[in-house]
Each structure stands twice: as structure tokens, then as C-alpha cells.
Write a structure and sequence with these properties.
Elements lengths: L1 H13 L2 H11 L8 H16 L4 E20 L12 E2 L11 E7 L5 H7 L7 E5 L12 H9 L4 E5 L21 E4 L1 H10 L2 E22 L7 E7 L9 H18 L9 E7 L7 H8 L9 E7 L7 E5 L4 H10 L6 E5 L2 E2 L4 H5 L5 E6 L23 H20 L10 H7 L5 E2 L5
Parallel strand pairs: 3-4, 4-5, 5-6, 8-9, 8-10, 10-14, 11-12
Antiparallel strand pairs: 1-7, 2-6, 3-7, 7-9, 11-14, 13-15
Length: 442
């Protein structure tokens, strides 16, 4: 099996396939769910999976609530002459009344629970503005843990200000059922000005919703038979800005290149491989949730590992997040023993990517992530128009792919369980919060 790994590593470092695939996915556009760009990405991935020789490739369709924003604008009467606020809607934002609405601004700083407690009833009826935080930190507060308290306390709108300078707004999602209030992202500079001016803003957000269909892609590579299943996944959708390069053309390119490399080795591994490309991840993990929730109780123990690739470049540091599975973390440490890249293993629970839906069913799951706790890394440009291919280093992407290949091959050849499947009760204790939280004590 070392020869297989050596061949893959040599191919990754010596060839141009991985980098070319990454750039081709970026060139398809940002891949926002429900747009021609997303459809083009699905066609691209399906075509290349088939061309790679994987014997079984299919589309797994699901329904969801489609949403699009026709207009998103914010203005303030005290803004300097010529200043234009660069607002972006958060996914599933509600609309304002036609023609917009005027609201008093309430600045809640970071937007912690204590900030909301101090604000008390003053939030009601106002446009709450809070800070966006670096997504990939064990100390960060996920936007949803700011948005939901704002809704609960009666805010009339939610404004999220980027923490990174550059005059580009931040985006993200609200909740899959839909936001009851307008919710938009702003640049750091726009947020700073708005906070300094205070007073009232005019907000105009017009959206449309309708039933929609989307498709996950699933490709299978059988092993020797009688083993369990390893699921390698990445989401192919993005936000409606930039190239969605970091998030997640990087993961898609690595998953596709590993599928290509392994297609010649059908039938030699102890376990089967499935390669999944999910969509509507940026809309509250809906694509993977639909798939995982459709699995029967009998199917769950047959999944030995979910290996999720999401933002696997933008830094030279890679973390294997093991989501409260200490036995899985021990196994990953062993699998990475000879890995030359800068790799760390963490048991922290990260509920903001597709692996979380597997964790919720008790399946051992790992997310490979670049830039954990590196607030200044290029990974922080995701969820913005600045998520473009120049933020990804070719050597970093290659290193991330090599580390993923090492763990994936170890998992495919293991005839023993990698970690214990958790019960529903145990899994529930792991899923209490969004973002990064310590694993609960047993």
C-alpha cells in the first residue's frame, strides 16, 4: 500500500492536474445554489468522475426552498458625499417592505450573550449591528449564535460587519427555514462608519423564494467486498460572490484528484470508497443533511469514516478536526505519523460543515481544515467577494491533498473499525452549538 501512496504523492507533486482542476472549478464562477454556475459545476464534476473511470456515478436529488435576492441596499443620510455602502444579503434573509424601511441602529459590538443581556429591550425594533469573526478559531462565535439572539429579542434587522479590512462585505447564511428579519453583511469600513454615525439607516432588501431541486453527486469505488464504507466528501456550492475558491474549490479539486488517482485501484482495498459532492452547504448544510437523514439505522454502522474536505488551503497549517471522537483522534494521529506537512489533530467539535450531519448520526467524522486559529491567514477571505484563486497557494493545496491522501488510504485499507460509532444520545451531546466548542465530558 505504500507504493500506492507514493504514486499518488508523486502525481500530486509532479503533475499539474490538481492545480488545473482547482482553477477550472474557480473559472465556473461562485456556484451559488440555484444558479447556472452551480449547475455547470455539477456537470463538470460528474463528467470528470466518469472520465476518471469510476464505475458508479449518480445524482442524488433533494428538494429545498430556493431563494434569491433581487436587491440589497443600505444608506445613511450622514454618510460622506459619494460614499456607497457595499451590502450583501445573508442567505435566506427576509425582505423589507417594498421601497425599504428606516430603522434605528443598535451597536452590540461582538454580539456575545453578555452584549445582548446588557442591551436588554433596547434591541427591539432596531437594526442590530455586530462583528463577524474569523470562522476558523476555537474562540470564535458563529454568526448564528449572534443572529438567533437578535431575532429572539425582537430586532427588526441584522447587520454583520466584516472584521477584515478591504472594503468587501461578509456574507453567510441565516437559518434554512428562513430568516424572519432582513439580514445583511457589510464591509469593515462600512460597519465602522455606520457605528460612528449612529442614528437611522434605510435598508432595502427584496427577495424571492420558491420550491427548488438540487443534486448531490455520488461516485463509488468498490473494495474487496465485505468491508465497510469510507465517504470522502466536499461541497461544490459557494456564495454569490468572488470565485468561492477557498470555500470550496480547494476541497472539490482535492476530492476529484484523489478519486482520479484511486480509480485504477478498484477492488484492492478492504473498504469501499464513496466520493460525495454536496450542494446547498452554504445554505445550512442542506445537501448533506438530506442525504444523511435518508440513511437507515442499519446503514449507519456500515460507514467507517466520513472525511470532509472544506477549505483545505489558504494556509500551510492543516488541522484534522475529530469532533469529540477521542478514539478517532488517536487513530488519525497514527495515520499521520509519517506525514511531512504541518498537521495537527484536534478533538474540537466543528458543526459548520457537512461532516456535522454525520456526527449527528454518530458516524466517526473528520474535517480537514487549513488555518485553524490563524486569524491573519488567507482563509479569512472566505464568505466574501475576496474569496478568489489568488488566496490559494499551489504548494499549500498540494500539501493538503497529500495529507488527505495519507489518511484516506489508511482508512481504506483498515480491516478494523477506526472508531466506535456513537449512539444517538452520545451524538446529540456533540451537537449542542454552532462553531467550535470543546467536546462534552462523557
Amino acid at each position: 500500500m505504500d507504493s500506492v501512496l507514493g504514486g499518488i504523492i508523486g502525481q500530486l507533486h509532479g503533475g499539474s492536474g490538481l492545480w488545473r482542476t482547482f482553477l477550472e472549478i474557480c473559472d465556473l464562477g461562485p456556484r451559488f445554489s440555484g444558479t447556472p454556475s452551480e449547475a455547470a459545476a455539477a456537470d463538470y464534476l460528474e463528467r470528470h468522475l466518469r472520465e476518471a473511470g469510476l464505475p458508479h456515478v449518480r445524482r442524488w436529488e433533494f428538494g429545498y426552498t430556493g431563494w434569491r435576492c433581487a436587491r440589497c441596499g443600505l444608506s445613511h443620510p450622514g454618510a460622506p458625499p459619494g460614499w456607497a455602502f457595499r451590502a450583501m444579503p445573508l442567505v435566506y434573509s427576509a425582505a423589507t417592505p417594498p421601497g425599504g424601511m428606516e430603522l434605528e441602529v443598535a451597536d452590540l459590538g461582538r454580539g456575545t450573550a453578555e452584549d445582548f443581556r446588557r442591551a436588554g429591550d433596547s434591541v427591539r425594533g432596531r437594526a442590530v449591528i455586530v462583528d463577524a469573526e474569523y470562522s476558523f478559531s476555537v474562540n470564535s462565535l458563529h454568526r448564528r449564535r449572534k443572529f438567533l439572539p437578535a431575532v429572539e429579542r425582537g430586532a427588526a434587522a441584522f447587520l454583520l460587519a466584516n472584521s477584515r479590512p478591504g472594503r468587501f462585505p461578509v456574507t453567510g447564511s441565516t437559518t434554512p427555514p428562513g430568516s424572519p428579519i432582513p439580514a445583511i453583511g457589510l464591509s469593515r469600513e462600512d460597519g465602522t462608519l455606520l457605528r460612528r454615525l449612529g442614528g437611522r439607516v434605510r435598508l432595502d432588501v427584496q427577495v424571492e423564494t420558491a420550491p427548488a431541486r438540487a443534486a448531490n453527486l455520488i461516485a463509488s469505488l468498490p473494495g474487496r467486498g465485505g468491508g465497510r464504507k469510507i465517504i470522502l466528501c466536499a461541497h461544490y456550492d459557494g456564495h454569490n460572490c468572488g470565485e468561492s475558491a477557498l470555500d470550496n474549490a480547494t476541497g472539490c479539486a482535492v476530492a476529484l484528484e484523489l478519486a482520479r488517482a484511486l480509480s485504477a485501484h478498484r477492488g484492492i482495498f478492504a473498504n469501499d470508497l464513496e466520493v460525495h459532492f454536496y450542494t446547498a452547504e452554504e445554505w445550512g448544510l442542506q445537501g448533506s443533511r438530506a442525504y444523511v437523514n435518508a440513511l437507515s439505522e442499519e446503514e449507519i454502522p456500515g460507514i467507517a469514516l466520513n472525511l470532509n474536505l472544506d477549505v483545505v488551503a489558504g494556509s500551510s497549517k492543516f488541522t484534522f478536526l475529530c469532533n469529540g471522537f477521542p478514539d478517532l483522534a488517536d487513530w488519525v494521529r497514527g495515520a499521520l505519523a509519517d506525514e511531512p506537512s504541518h498537521c495537527e489533530v484536534s478533538e474540537w467539535v466543528a458543526n459548520n460543515s457537512d461532516h456535522a450531519n454525520y456526527v449527528a448520526r454518530g458516524v466517526p467524522a473528520v474535517r480537514i481544515l487549513a488555518g485553524l486559529d490563524e486569524n491573519g491567514s488567507d482563509c479569512g477571505f472566505h464568505l466574501s467577494p475576496a474569496d478568489t484563486s489568488d488566496k490559494v497557494g499551489r504548494m499549500d493545496l498540494t500539501a493538503g491533498a497529500g495529507a488527505a491522501a495519507r489518511v484516506l488510504l489508511k482508512a481504506l485499507q483498515s480491516e478494523k473499525p477506526l472508531a466506535r460509532t456513537r449512539t444517538r444520545e452520545e451524538a446529540g451531546r456533540l451537537m449542542l452549538h454552532y462553531g467550535f466548542t470543546p467536546p462534552p465530558a462523557d
